[in-house]
Amino acid sequence: MSGTDGGTDSTGGTGARGGFARGLRLWFAPEGIREEGDTPDYRFSLANERTFLAWIRTALALIGGGFAVDQFLPRLTSAVRSGLALALLVAGVLCALRAVNHWVRCERAMRRGEDLPVSRFPVLLSLAVGVVALAMVVVVLFGWEGR
Question: Which end of the chain is more exposed for a tag (fewer CB within 10 A), N or C?
Fold first, then answer.
């Protein structure tokens, strides 16, 4: 049911705001997830946790890559170096935030017996990383060195 007709939406709140606020609260108080539906098979919860950890490792790699670009490519112009570094750092931050959001959404869906949530985030992250990688290929080939 949609939140507009007085029922609860697919996120557990009444309407989009209630679901978002409840989901955000679960980031900081995950024990509240036990109020949702039935306990799933532990193997599924543990798989969900492993997926969360994989997203966190990806976030850490992106953040490390951003710092590496900034620190180890001093011959690039400042604008190019900063742009590439910031793109990687922002992608890392978004990936870390998405990790916890995805963990909560999947855990809630499993407890309710619903389909797992879908997301465009993996595509957006892949495109962002691809654009940064392509920019780095251009930098390597044409050597945008600072003067």
Answer: C
Q: Which residues does 109 contact at the CB level (< 8 Å), separation at least 6?
A: 115, 116, 117
Residue 84 burial by Cβ neighbours in a 10 Å radius (0-12, 13-18, 19+): buried
Cβ-proximal residues to 117 (8 Å cutoff; 6+ apart), any chain:
102, 105, 106, 109
Give the C-alpha separation, 118 to 141, whole Å.
38
Choose among 124, 142, 138, 140: nearest CA to 87. Answer: 124
CB–CB of 52/99 below 8 Å?
yes
Over the chain (147 residues), what is each successive 10-residue block's mean pLDDT?
A: 38 53 84 88 94 96 94 85 93 95 94 93 92 87 66
